[in-house]
Design brief:
Length: about 190
Amino acid sequence: MAIPREAERRWTAEELFALGEEERYELIEGKLIPMTPTGLLHGDVELALATVLRAFVHPRRLGRVVVGEVGFVLRRDPDTVRAADVAFIRAERLPPEGLPTGFFEGAPDLAVEILSPTDRYADLLYKVSQWLEAGTRQVWVVDPARRTVTIFQPDGTLRLLHESDELDGGDVLPGFRCLIRDLFAG
């Protein structure tokens, strides 16, 4: 993936969106960061989790569950746009005129990151901290290789769940429950 020649300049969220979906980037403090396409296992786990989340959220009209590296503007001047594998936004935070065609202004209530074999842990922790600092109420980091889910909270606490444990929505999605093993049952 070729980074545009002027990539060293400071980019805005609007300019990033105008690049289109053929080349995938995130934006960190105005700097373009290339994103590699995900692998098959990653996509399978993403679909499994999004399916159970949507089945819970949709009939209760709690908000929207989105997938596919949707962009969220976490900061302006310089702009930071991060993409979540899966995200949930509460209904009362959605624009009354409907979903925007561009990036969402602000952080999701829940951000889910699914680890890929090439992810660097330091980069992942930085991204988790950006989500939480921008107002995300929970970040779930799903590790398909270890079959675990780590829940990060804004107060700095975290919980590591294993395959035999049950994932719950906490105060972000009260009543939501899912066995961790079901996320990896292909």
